[in-house]
Amino acid sequence: MQAAMHNMTKVVQDKVSPTHNLPMSINCDGPVNAMDMNKDMSKVVVAGRQVFKIIEVEDDMFVETSNLRVGKPKNINLNYSAADVAWNHNDENMLASAATNGAVVIWNLSKQVKSKQEFVFMEHKRSVNRVVFHNSEAYQLLSGSQDGTMKLHDLRRKQVTLTFMGRSSESVRDIQFCPANLGYFSFAAAYENGIVQIWDMRRPDRCEKHFTAHNEPVFALDWHPEDKHWLATAGRDKMIKVWDINKQPAQLLYVVQTIASVGRIKWRPQRRYHIANCSLLLDHNVNVWDVRRPYIPFACFEQHKDVATCVLWKDPHILLSTGKDYMLHQHIFQSAKRPGDFVIPSGVDISIHGDVCLAYKERTAAVKGKEAGKISMFGRKTSQSRSELFFTQANSSLAVFQQIAEPNTEDEFAAQQMSPTQLASEDVSMTSFLELAKKYRLKGLTTEELCRHNSAAAAAVDKYQVAQTWQIMGNIFCTKTSSTKSTSLQVPRINVTPNAPMDRQDVEKGKAVSSPDNEVEVVRSDNDKEKNGEISTGTDSDSDGESSEFEKNQLADIASGLGHNGDFFFGDGDNETLSYPLGITVQGGEDWTQLPSEAFQPRHEITGPAAPPDRLDHDSLMVAAVESDAVAVMTPIEESEPSEQYLNLNIDCSAFHAGTVLDYTSTAVDIICCFAEQGDIQSAVSMLIVLGDHVRSHIDGESQENWFMSYIDLLSRFRLWTIASEVIALSHLPQVMQLNQSSTSIHTACPHCMRTMERSGWLCDRCKSVVNMCSICHCPVKGLAVWCQGCCHGGHIQHIQDWLVGNILCPEGCGHMCEYT
Amino acid sequence: MANIAEQRIRREFKEVVKSDEVAACNIRVELVNDTYTHLRGEIMGPPDTPYEGGRFQLEIKIPETYPFNPPLVKFLTKIWHPNISSVTGAICLDILKDQWAAAMTLRTVLLSLQALLAAAEPDDPQDAVVAQQYKEHYEIFRRTALHWTSTFANGPKKDKDYDDKVTSLINMGFEEHKARVALSTNQWDLTRAAEYCLS
C-alpha cells in the first residue's frame, strides 16, 4: 500500500515536474553486468562479476544500502558472480541471479543473517544468460541458459517444474515475459542462431511462434509495454527490429541501424516509438531511438566511459544505466544529447528527368538568415583560389531557396519541390550542359573573341560564374596585345600634348566636376579592363583629328572621367614590369598632399628627355605618355588644389597597377583546375581548348587527359557526336586524338570480285587490279571523286567536269547519258 | 602536251606492249619520235577475211585534248575497205568520232579497227565506190581486197587473174597504182578501166 502510494506520488510528480530529478551516479567498485529495480523503483540491485549490491535511489543521490557479496573470501564462489539479476515484482525481498556456472541463485533480503543467499538451483549445465520473474506469479522464475533450455522454477517447491527446449537446442540469450496485462502466459525467447520464439508457459513441448529475426545471434528482446503484439529484438548484426508478432509470419515493422552489436534494449514507457539500447562493444553511449528514424539516435547519453551493460527506465524521463566502467548512472531525459539536432537534415535527390528535390529542416523564422548563409556556404564549397576573391558574388545564385511558411510541427521537417526556373540555375541540370556544349565555340576566332562568345553563351543559360570566368580569361590573355597597340598609338599624342595651348578654364571646370568621378574610376578600372580597352582605342581615333580640337576633347574627357581611363590604361594594361621612375612610385605610396611642390618637381625634369616621339622603347614611351599627360595638366595650373587631386589619381593608378602585376597564367590554371575539381568538366575543358598554348604546359598531361576523356564521354552519352569529335580534334593530346582514328574504320570491297580490300583502298589483292579508276585519266582516284548514279562510272571531279563540257554520254563509253547535279 | 594526255598515253603504250595481242603479233604500236603525240600502229588482218595475213600500218596522232577527244587515226597502208578511204586511208569508225569514250585506250582502238576489218559496215561508208562494190559484187570486192592486201600489206595470197589485168593495163602505158585503182573501181573490166584511166 505504501509502495503503491509512493508510486502514485511518483506518477503525479512526473506529470507536474518531470525534470525534478537530477542526474546522478555512483561507483559500484566493479564492472556491472546487470541490474534490476524493485517494484516501486526505490532500490536498484546491481550485479557483476565482483559486485552484488543493493543501492537506494534517493531524490538527489544514490546510497548503497547493502552488499550481498559478503562472507569469508574462501566461501565466495561463482554463485556470487552474476551475469543477470532480477527483482521479484511482487515480493520486495526476493532476488534471483544467474551465475556463469549454470547456477540460478535465489536471494532473500529479509534474512537476518549477513548472507542473504537462500537457495541455489543447479539445473543448467552451462551458464545462465537471463533470469526473469513472472509479472504476477510471485514464485515463478524463468531462466534461460547457454545450454539451450529454459527452465521454469517454482520457488516454493524449490524445484524446476517445466523445461522448455527449442528444437535446435541453440543457446538462449534472452527471455522476457509478456507484460502482465497483455499476455499472462506468454514469453519470448531469443536464440543465438537468430531465431525468436514465442512460448506459452502451459505448453512446454513446442513453441507458439517461431521466426528468424536476425542473421546473427539475438542478444536482447523486449515486449512493447503497451502493444502486446510488438516485440523488439536486437543482436550482433547491429540492428534493432520491431516485429508485429500477431501477423503470420511475424511482420517486420521497423529497423533501427546502430553502429555496434546491441546488448540490451528497453522500450521507453509512455512513448510508443522510443526504445533505449546499449551496445556490447564499441559504443559506450546509451541511445534512445525513435524507431521511425532509424539512423540517428533520438537521444544519447554519453556519461559512460566503458560499454554500458544494462538500461532501465524508471519513468519516461529518467533512465538508469550501468556499465563496465563501474558506474551506475541516472540520466535525466531532458539533459540528453540530441544528435538529430546537430545534423543538418537535408536530403537531395535527382529524378530521372534531372529535377532536383531538396528537403531540409526548417527551423524558426528567427534563424532564417543564418540558415540561408549555411546553404550558400554549401554552394561555395570550393577551393579558395586567388581568383575566387574577384567574384564571390556570383556564387550567391546557388542560395536561392524559398522559405517555407509553415514548418511541420511533428518532426519539424519541411520538404520543398524546387520550381523549374530554380532548377535551371542549378549546376546539376543537364539542359544547360547541352546548351553550352552546342553553343561554345572552341576555334575559328581569336582567343579574346572566343572568350567573349562563350561568356555570352554561359550567361544565356544563367551560369554567371562561368560567364564571368570566361570574360576574365579573355581579358587576361588578350590585354597584352591590346595594351602594346594602344601604347604605340599613343605616340602622336606625346607630340601634341606638351606643345598645345592649355585652356585653363577648361581644366579647372573639368576638375570641379571630375574629382569624385575619378575616384570611382580608379576602383572600377581594376575589374573592368575590357571597358578600358575599348576606351583606349576610342582615344586613338580622337588623336587623328585636329590637334587643338583634340586637346579640348581630351580635357573634356578628363573632366567627365572618361578619357581619364584611357590615360592610365596603358599603364594598367601592361603586364610587364613597369619601370616607372622611382620618384613617381614613391610618391604614389606616400602622403603626397603634404609635399606638393616636391612632388611635381621631378616630373618636369623627366619630361624633357622622355618625350622624343620617335623612340620605340616600349617602357619609355609609356612613361612619356604618363608624364606628358601629367605635365599637360599641371603646367598651367601650377599648384592648385584640384590639379593635385588629379595628379594623385595618376600616380595612384600607376603605383596600384604596378603593384598588382599578377602571374595571370597561374591564376588561369588555378581557375581551370578549380572548375575541374568542382566537377564542371565542361568549363575546364572548354577553357583549356580556347586558351590553348597559354595554359596547356602548366597542367600535367594526365589530368588534362582525364578531363578530356570525361568530357568526351559525357558528350557521347548525350549523343553530341559532332561536338565530341571536335573536342577530340582540338585536344592536342595524342592519347585523346587517336580516339578519332582508332574507333572509325571503313571497309571497302573490290567492285569486281566483291572481296574486301585489306591492304589499301584502291588495289584489290585478288584481282591484282586497281579499282575505282578515273574514267578519264585511268588513275586511281585519291581525293574528291564523283560518279554517275546511273551507270556508276566516274572519276576525278575536275576530269568529269571537263568531259561533260563536250560530251553528254558517259566517259566510260557505256552509252549512259550521265547526269550530275 | 597536257599532263593528263601524256600520262595516259604512256600507260596505254605500256598496256599495248605488254598485252596478249602483241604476244600473238596481232597488234603493235611504236613511237615515231620522243614525244607521245605521234605513234605508229600496226594491225594484222583478221583471219577468214580478205585481209588475212596482211600487216596494216596506222598513223596515230594524239591530240592535245586527249582523252577528251579521240586520237586521230588513219591507215598508212592502202586498203580496200568500205569504211576506209582507199585514197587517204581515213577511217570511218564511230568510236573515233562521236562515239569516242574516255575509257578507251590505244589497245581498244587498235582492236576495234581490227574488228572493223572483219566486219565492214557498207551502209555507213567512207569510200562509196568500195561500199557499192561490197554490196553489189561481193565476190569481186573480196578478190579486190585480197589483191590490195597482197600488193600493199604483204598478204600471202595472190590473185593471178587480177595481177595479170593490172600488168596488161600497165603495158597499155598507164601508171601501176592508177591502173589498179581503175580496175578495182570498174569491177576489173579492162575496157572500162582503160576508159576510166583516159578520162
Topology:
The complex is a heterodimer of chains A (821) and B (199).
Chain A: H1 2-16, E1 24-27, E2 34-37, E3 43-47, E4 52-57, E5 62-67, E6 82-87, E7 94-99, E8 104-108, E9 117-121, E10 128-133, E11 140-145, E12 149-154, E13 159-165, E14 172-177, E15 186-191, E16 195-200, E17 209-212, E18 218-223, E19 230-235, E20 239-244, E21 251-257, E22 262-267, E23 274-279, E24 286-290, E25 299-301, E26 308-315, E27 318-323, E28 327-332, H2 339-342, E29 346-350, E30 356-361, H3 368-379, E31 413-417, H4 420-425, H5 430-439, H6 447-460, H7 464-489, H8 491-499, H9 504-527, H10 529-543, H11 547-560, H12 563-573, H13 582-589, H14 596-610, H15 618-637, H16 641-659, H17 664-678, H18 681-691, H19 693-696, H20 701-717, H21 721-729, H22 734-742, E32 763-764, E33 769-770, E34 785-787, E35 794-796, H23 797-806
Antiparallel strand pairs in A: 1-28, 2-3, 3-4, 4-5, 6-7, 7-8, 8-9, 10-11, 11-12, 12-13, 14-15, 15-16, 16-17, 18-19, 19-20, 20-21, 22-23, 23-24, 24-25, 26-27, 27-28, 29-30, 30-31, 32-33, 34-35
Chain B: H1 3-18, H2 20-23, E1 27-31, E2 38-44, E3 55-61, E4 72-75, H3 106-118, H4 128-136, H5 138-152, H6 160-171, H7 176-185, H8 190-198
Antiparallel strand pairs in B: 1-2, 2-3, 3-4
Name some characteristics of this structure.
heterodimer; A: 821 residues; alpha+beta; 4-stranded antiparallel sheet; 23 helices; elongated; B: 199 residues; Ubiquitin Conjugating Enzyme; 2 domains; 4 strands
**Helix-strand pattern of chain B:** HHEEEEHHHHHH
| Distinct helical segment count of chain B | 8
Stretches of chain A where pLDDT is under 50 for at least 5 consecutive residues are 8-19, 364-427, 481-661
Domains of chain B (count): 2
Strand content of chain A: 15-25%
CATH topology of the largest domain in chain B: Ubiquitin Conjugating Enzyme
Taking all residues together, what is the mean pLDDT of chain B? 86
- Helicity of chain B, as a percent range: 40-55%
**What's the main sheet of chain A like?**
4 strands, antiparallel
Biggest interface and residues each: A-B, 17 and 16 residues
Low-confidence stretches of chain B: none
Counting helices, strands and paired strands, the structural category of chain B is alpha+beta
The helical percent of chain A reads 25-40%
Category from helices, strands and their pairing of chain A: alpha+beta
Mean residue pLDDT of chain A: 71
Oligomer: heterodimer
* Order of strands, widest sheet of chain A: 1-28-27-26
